[in-house]
Amino acid sequence: MDCTQVNGMLDLLMDDALSDEQRSALEAHGRECPACAAAIRSTLQMKALFAQMEPEIDVPLEAQARWRGAVREAAKAQRPKPLRRWIASAAAAAVVLVGVGAALTLRGAPKQNAATYEADAVAPMALEERADAPALASGIASNGMVDGASGAVVEADGMADEAVAIGETAMGLAMESEAAGLPAPACELALRVKDVETACDRIRDLAQEYEAVADVQAAGDGAADVYVEIAAENAGDFLNAVAPLDASGKAVEVPELTGSGRLLVLLALTEQ
Amino acid sequence: MEESRLIQRAGAGDAAAFNTLMGMHERRMYAVALRMCGNPEDAQDCLQEAMLRIYRAINGFKAQSSFSTWVYRITMNTCLDELRRRKNRPNTSLDGLYDAGWAPVDPGQTPEKSAMLGDMRRQLQAYIHELPEDMRAAVVLRDVEGYSYDEIARMLDANVGTIKSRISRGREKLREKIASKPELFDRVDV
Ligand SMILES: [Zn+2]
Hints:
Shape of chain A: elongated
Shape of chain B: globular
Mean pLDDT of chain A: 70
Low-confidence stretches of chain B: none
CATH topology of the largest domain in chain B: Rna Polymerase Sigma Factor, Chain: A
Bound molecules: zinc ion
Mean pLDDT of chain B: 90
CATH architecture of the largest domain in chain B: Orthogonal Bundle
Distance between the termini of chain B: 42 Å
Low-confidence stretches of chain A: 80-165, 176-182
Distance between the termini of chain A: 63 Å
CATH class of the largest domain in chain B: Mainly Alpha
Largest sheet of chain B: none
Order of helices and strands of chain A: HHHHHEEHHEHEEHE
Oligomer: heterodimer
Radius of gyration of chain B: 18 Å
Helix content of chain A: 40-55%
Number of domains of chain B: 2
Strand content of chain A: 5-15%
C-alpha cells in the first residue's frame, strides 16, 4: 500500500468496512510512514468522538410546545375547509343524513378560560353514499370540532337545507369552542410525576399501544397538559396503565368511563 | 396507532395525529438541527419551521417512499435554507456551542480527564461547524446519524458519488484539524 490509498482506507475505517487484510495493510503502512500514522491516529480519535455523539437529543419541553402550538395554529387556519366542502356536497346530493354526535357539549378548556360554553347541536356528517363518513367524523371529532361523536344514524329525507344550517351551527360552535380553547375532556386526571418530560414520553408510548393520539401542551412552571384522544373501550385500560406514573404515593382514582366512539382525556402533569 | 394511519390522518389536517406522528421523529430532527446550526435557539427555530413545512406537505407524501427519509430531507433543507439566510449575521461565538447530545462521561473518570474530554467534544463540534454547509450536512447524516450513503443521497438530492466524496473530504478536513491540535487531542485517550 502507498500513501495515496490511505485516504480511501480511512473512509472504510470510519464506516467499519475494513476487511482484515485491509486493516493489516493499513497498520503495516502506518508503522513505516509517520505522516499516515498521524492520519490514522486522528481518524481513530474522530471516530471515537463521533461514537459519543447521540443521534437523538431530547427536545426541551418549551420547544416541543412551541412547534406543536405552531402546527395547531396552522391547522386552525385550514380547518373549516373540509366541513364547508362537505356542506356543499350535502346540499347538492341531499338524501339521507348520517348524524354524528346528537348531543354536543362544547366548553372552553378549564385552564384557558373559566367561561363555559354549552350548547346542544346536531352535527350532520355525511350522506349515506359517502364511504368516508366515519373517517370524516373521526377527523372532525379529533380536530376538536365535535366532541362525543357517537356515529348514530339519523334518517332525514330531503333535509339538505336543514343539514347545511345545522352544519353551519356546528361549525360556529366548534369555532367558538376553539377560540376558548379545547372541547371538554371526558375526564381529567391529575398526576404528580418524578419528571414531566419522561412521563410525557411514557404517555406517548402508551397512547401508541392503545391506538390513541396524545398531544402535549406546556402548562407553565414545567407542568404539562396531555390531551389524549382514545376509543372509549380502551380508555379505562389506558388510564390504569398511566396511573402508576404518579409518584405522590397517594392512590390515583381512575374514573369509570362509559360510552362509545372516541373521547378526550386530559392528563394534568406536575413535577413532584 | 400505526405510522401509516397517522400519516393518513395528518394528511387530512388532523393536527393531533400529526403531533403524535412527529413526536416519534422530533429528537432526531432536533439532533440534526442542533449539529447543523450549532446553537439551541436556531436549532429550535429550524425544528419548528421544518415541522410546519412537513405539516403543509404531508398530504402529498407518497406512501411508497420512506417517511423518515422524506422527513429528514425536509429537515435538512430547512436547516440549509436557514443557514444560508443567516450568512450575513455575525457569527455566534464558540462559547455558545452547546454541550448537549453527548453520551454521559464514564463516572469512573478523573475530573481532569472528564474536563479534557469535554474540551475535545466542544472542539470537534466547532470543527464540524467550520465545514462548508453541504459537507457538514453529509458528515452529520453519516457519522452522527448513521444513515447509509444511499439514504443520504436521497435526503440531500445528490448522487451517491457526490455524497461519498463530500463525506470523504469532510472527514479529511476534520482529521487535519484534529492533527493540528495534538496538545488537546493527544493528551488522553478519547
Ligand atoms: Zn503514508
